[in-house]
Design brief:
Distance between the termini: 55 Å
Radius of gyration: 36 Å
Strand content: 15-25%
Oligomer: single chain
Length: 566
């Protein structure tokens, strides 16, 4: 969790320089764990995001718009009632605690000017947003918690989370040195995070590396460097000398660098930390949505894939049974030819007769002794005719099932090859209109971030340039169809890996050159793109088909991507 006390204090410092005096003109609740306040101050519109999502909890200004639910949540309606037209008069927190208090001046129903407070608690799973009156009596909360420590319920008095750690801000160097005295070779990171309010492991670890101080072997001089650095960092909050540094894909921390000069000139304010957090958490949220949406679709498609495999297995078993139909016909014909030799009323378990199809060798034919020989003959011919009819039907079913299997496998490939939510959305758009559509609809809560595009909306494909030639690569079945059937001109060059699932690659040929006139390295790179965007991406030797686009045809009635001939 990187949103520690230092990040909280830095964000508050920037907000105090920009939105104090701002008027609340809009309140949104895009999700159940998120509030966005639309603010107006000195001719500038701001959007303040308050997020209580356990994995994304934060407070910061945002420039990323989000769709709102058609019907507002109850807490959103409450905030609109109590905060709309209110003015922010202060934003603060205690020490380096991650509980932020925003005070509003607002007129109530009797037109009296009153104080409302919004508390934002950044505490991972316990994160919450609480609205109170001026006496800290809770009006309502985003989440209702009732535990042995605090009762965060309407009409209860709001109390802060009990603090069991020391304040670094009010600690002298002598006391700091005494606390961090390292006689037992204890980690400095562990000492600071366990002792002081607001310290996190990423913050201490990264800044110790920056200062060149060891986590275990450190002197009094090293402790003085650390102590002075942290105090200087706190004193520089709200300036461009303090900024956020991303230290991994999932983490970041606050850094002090007096040579660093970053500010957002478009707003004439130093809001670099706010907008860093906005981009960081938006990307993290989009990544999470992408993974969850892809996994939800994969689950649906994989379920269909298993059913098709089972269907083909049953068909193959039926085909194996059909292989015996000629044997049943033979038994029927031989019994009919030798019926005069047999006592048709005698109940026999089997008979041994000559097979005139095989040099009159003797063959043993089993019989059902509960019925006559004549009935056995009828039974064998009935089995033969039944399996003969089944063979013609099952053969057609197998071809259809194999086509369905091939199509669903392309969907699985496209999902695995997707890079962003837009790619997933195009796959969703495709399968929502075919045999998988009902299952997609039944799972709509799990893939609520996906939606079908309006009809006739253009597909936006960015070309790759190689030696002034433009190359287009399809990322899914819909893009493949668009590339091959709409974007392609007759003399463009079309590429696809041989007999494997993969992207369609199109080399635009505006000058109508012969294939032999196109540079060999361009053709090779197009073939390489087809290979890299296919199931054979990790193979060493891959065959790639290519031809003029005018020779690529699609069979009538085929699903996207399937049914191409060249």
């Amino acid at each position: 969790m990187a949103f520690d006390g230092f990040v909280t204090k830095a964000v508050i410092s920037e907000l105090n320089n920009s939105i104090i005096g701002a008027k609340v003109n809009k309140v949104f609740e895009p999700t159940k764990n998120e509030i966005v306040l639309g603010l107006y101050n000195n001719g500038i519109n701001y959007a303040l995001e308050l997020c209580a999502n356990p994995d994304l909890c934060r407070i910061c200004l945002t420039t990323h718009s989000k769709p709102n639910p058609q019907n507002a949540y109850n807490f959103c309606m409450l905030l609109r009632k109590y905060l709309t037209s209110g003015k922010i008069i202060s934003i603060s927190n205690y020490d380096l605690e991650r509980t932020i208090e925003i005070k509003f001046e607002v007129y109530n129903e009797l037109n009296d000017l009153v104080i409302r407070k919004l508390f934002i608690e950044i505490m991972s799973r316990q994160s919450n947003i609480i609205l109170t009156n001026d006496k800290n009596i809770i009006i309502d909360t985003l989440k209702h918690f009732d535990n042995n420590v605090r009762d965060l319920l309407p009409a209860h008095e709001y109390t802060f989370t009990p603090i069991n750690k020391k304040s670094f801000i009010n600690t002298s160097f002598e006391e700091f040195e005494k606390i961090t005295k390292n006689e037992e070779k204890t980690s400095l990171i562990k000492i600071l995070t366990n002792t002081f309010i607001g310290f996190s492991k990423p913050f201490i670890s990264e800044n110790l590396n920056l200062l060149g101080v060891s986590d275990i072997e450190y002197s009094s001089e090293d402790l003085k460097i650390v102590y002075n650095y942290i105090n200087k960092l706190i004193n520089n909050f709200g300036t461009s000398n303090v900024y956020c540094k991303q230290i991994s894909e999932k983490d970041y921390t606050i850094i002090l660098d007096e040579n660093h000069n970053y500010s957002d000139s478009s707003l004439n304010n130093n809001l670099n930390i706010n907008f860093f957090l906005d981009d960081f958490y938006t990307n993290k949220e989009q990544s999470s949505i992408f993974i969850n949406s892809r996994n939800s679709l994969l689950k649906i498609v994989s379920s269909s894939l298993k059913k098709v495999y089972k269907k083909i297995e049953n068909i193959n078993q039926k085909l194996q049974e059909c292989e015996q139909m000629d044997k049943f016909r033979l038994y029927g014909e031989l019994l009919t030819a030798n019926l005069y030799k047999l006592n048709s009323n005698e109940n026999l378990e089997n008979v041994e007769i000559e097979n005139y199809y095989d040099e009159n060798k003797l063959i043993t034919i089993p019989l059902d002794k509960s019925i006559s020989v004549q009935k056995n003959i009828e039974k064998y011919f009935k089995k033969y005719n039944k399996l003969k009819n089944a063979l013609s039907i099952v053969s057609i079913q197998k071809k259809e099932a194999e086509k369905e299997l091939d199509y669903i496998e392309t969907i699985v490939f496209n999902l695995g090859n997707s890079k962003n939510l837009n790619d997933i959305n195009e796959v969703y758009e495709e399968i929502a209109e075919n045999v998988l559509g009902k299952k997609v609809i039944s799972q709509k809560e799990k893939i609520k971030h996906l939606k079908k595009k309006p009809k006739n909306e253009n597909i936006d494909l960015q070309p790759i340039s190689i030696d002034e030639f433009k190359i287009y690569v399809g990322k899914n079945n819909i893009q493949n169809d668009y590339i091959s059937l709409k974007l392609a001109s007759p003399n463009d060059i079309w590429f696809h890996v041989q007999k494997l699932h993969g992207s369609h690659v199109l080399l635009k040929n505006p000058e109508n050159l012969e294939i032999s006139e196109i540079p060999e390295n361009v053709l090779f790179n197009c073939a390489l793109l087809a290979k890299q965007n296919s199931k054979a991406s990790n193979s060493l030797n891959v065959s790639v088909d290519y031809c003029l686009a005018k020779f690529v045809k699609k069979l009538s009635g085929s699903k996207p991507r399937n049914g191409y001939l060249q």
